[in-house]
Amino acid sequence: MSMGAFKHRKATILKQLSVPQAQYNDLSPKGSIDEPIRALIDDINAIEGLVTTSSCSGRISVFLEGKRKKDTPEDLPRQNEDKDLPGIAGPGGKGGGTWLFVSHSPVDVPERNEGDRFNWGDHFTRLFGLRPHEVVPRYSLSSGISLVHLKFEPMIMHIMTKSMDDAQRVLSAALQAGFRESGTVGLSPRADGTITPMVAIRSTGLLFDSIVGQQMSQGVICAIVSEEYLHTLVQLGNERFRVNKSRIDRFRAELLKLYNMSAPPSADTEGWEDGAARKRRKRAEGLERQSQLKGTTDVHSESQEDREVYADGLFT
């Protein structure tokens, strides 16, 4: 893509992204930047050859599927062929559905006294728009009941680049930061001969999706798991938020380094090192240890086991 054409497309995209934060009231990510990655987005868009086209910083969400239609004989063969069941809303609400809860940051967990060990209450049940249900009726997926999902999804971002070199830098930074499922598309020339590489930054390793409720025939949305189980899922999601943030910080640092820019120090990046840096450090530590051992007099000879442990530490 020519630099002029890229600049024009970048300007158009940035104009679309400049929606005031106060106007963003939709529960699902839509046309605005999530606050946890605002600084990252600003840094990326400040680079001449890059522009973000879509992003989500990561989220915990509770989502009610769209109404599941009842099976008919005509549907059954098609169900066996399709990957997804018919009538189920997708992650973005495809086919209908309702967002019951969305958070792009860790969810507050109320403190509990020791005496409440066996009394979990219904804090998360209510927070997620569910109603406690003592006895859940038996049902099958073909009964027309919509299910409620509690999900954690890590950051995902799409970055348009003006050249293959820019795309390679972005992809390299993403892989180094731990976004292992990242990749590049749009490598084929357009009709005019230009190429618009698009890099998708993503990682599925942190994702989870649990069924926690169902919508009854009368429209009531009931929990089908205990409050204790919801508490466990929230704690798991909060821990994955921490890992997700660490990867985001590393991606930002790696990307800016590749463009000879500097990022503010972060607690998550100061103590992190890539594989090459770790090998250099381990080798230096091994050589220092070897020097210390040579200068130490010991009446005991070094055992074969000690030598093996030391060698492992030297070349790991």
Automatic annotation (TrEMBL):
Residues 69-92, 264-316 are annotated as: Disordered. The lineage of its organism: Eukaryota, Fungi, Dikarya, Ascomycota, Pezizomycotina. The keyword Transport does not apply. Residues 69-85, 297-310 have a biased composition (Basic and acidic residues). Gene3D superfamilies: tRNA wybutosine-synthesizing-like. Its EC number is 2.1.1.282. It comes from Patellaria atrata CBS 101060. Keywords: Methyltransferase, S-adenosyl-L-methionine, Transferase, tRNA processing. The keyword tRNA processing applies. GO terms for molecular function: methyltransferase activity. Residues 9-256 form the tRNA wybutosine-synthesizing protein domain. It catalyses: 4-demethyl-7-[(3S)-3-amino-3-carboxypropyl]wyosine(37) in tRNA(Phe) + S-adenosyl-L-methionine = 7-[(3S)-3-amino-3-carboxypropyl]wyosine(37) in tRNA(Phe) + S-adenosyl-L-homocysteine + H(+). It is an enzyme of class 2 (transferase). This is tRNA(Phe) 7-[(3-amino-3-carboxypropyl)-4-demethylwyosine(37)-N(4)]-methyltransferase. GO terms for biological process: methylation; tRNA processing. Belongs to the TYW3 family. It comes from the Eukaryota.
